[in-house]
């Protein structure tokens, strides 16, 4: 395994709350104690929810808490070209398909009894992904990941081993031509050689999707 490296990855969608602070402090303490490298990544791709003052504010708060990191701050939106390259790779491997239907529209389509339906989210996957993708998508379309596992086991050092439902084809690229959190995090963690992720347990479900990706 490459040398241990973790990341602090705030999203500038508002003021940091106590849960964020707790996670960052724990992440930093564990990293310092075990001599891991720490990357700071500002996850600013969530356009509509982004608050202009929140970037500086979260950096100031972390510095005030005495938290430090190695190297320059990495800004996620600077890496959108790499995220696009990942989407292209997934298209090439037929692991994604374009889908312009909203959740609501998917539900309506799925009133047809022959389609697959799960309690969590409907799946309306084309049978021939290559053929489907060869048809020019609309300018604004989502791309969904072909989830070939109905469940996925995540091993977390604190929460233990748990099975998560991964049966729906989650969106990796949005109608607004931006990567989703799921795709950007996987691309960036890989690119930045992150070996250890410490985050809130509300992201365990996401970890299951991200491990598939
Ligand atoms: N940026 C995410 C957040 O603030 C966390 C990212 C992650 O741990 O994957 O919720």
Write up what this structure looks like.
Helices cover 35% and strands 16% of the residues. It is built from 7 helices and 8 strands; from the N terminus they run βαβαβαβααββββαα. It has a 3-stranded parallel β-sheet with strand order 1-2-3. A 3-stranded antiparallel β-sheet has the order 4-5-8. Strand 2, helix 2 and strand 3 form a beta-alpha-beta unit. About 4% of the residues have low confidence. The site of glutamic acid (GLU) has 7 residues, from loops.
Mean pLDDT: 89
Structural class of the secondary elements?
Answer: alpha/beta
- Spatial gap, N to C terminus: 20 Å
Largest sheet: 3 strands, parallel
- Radius of gyration, rounded? 19 Å
Shape: globular
Unreliable stretches: 110-118
Hetero groups:
glutamic acid
Instruction: Compute the number of helices.
Output: 7
Number of strands: 8
List keywords for this structure.
213 residues, alpha/beta, three-stranded antiparallel sheet, 7 helices, 8 strands, binds glutamic acid
Summarize the structure.
Helices cover 35% and strands 16% of the residues. The strands form three sheets. The chain has a three-stranded parallel beta sheet. Strands 4-5-8 form a three-stranded antiparallel beta sheet. It is of the alpha/beta class and 213 residues long.
